[in-house]
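Weekly structure sync, notes
Attendees: PL (lead), two postdocs, one rotation student
Agenda item 3: pending single-chain targets
PL asked that the sequence for the first pending target be pasted directly into the notes so everyone works from the same version. It is reproduced below exactly as submitted, 90 residues in total.
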Amino acid sequence: MGKLIFWVVVFIGGLVTTRILARKALQHAMDAHQRAQAQQQQPNEVLKSTEKMVRCEHCGLHLPRSEATMIENKMWCSKEHASLGAKQRA
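Predicted structure, written out during the meeting:
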């Protein structure tokens, strides 16, 4: 009778251990899925925050439009380059 009780306890312990491990594996898989979804959303946020680039009429430097100086419908990287004027390009 003692051996039977021992094996019943071992069997139930095995079932409990298997159930605990299965829950942990499921939770880990769900966390990995949520991390993957978060990483996929980040590039879209970066694309939404991009800005149009413009070229300086004097030196040809490309810079964000918000940082450029616009004078007479031309873009310049600084007021100094605006005062020097546009360079002739070959």
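Discussion points:
- The chain has two domains: 1-50, 53-84.
- Residues 2-48 form the longest helix (47 residues).
Action: rotation student to compare against the earlier draft before next sync.
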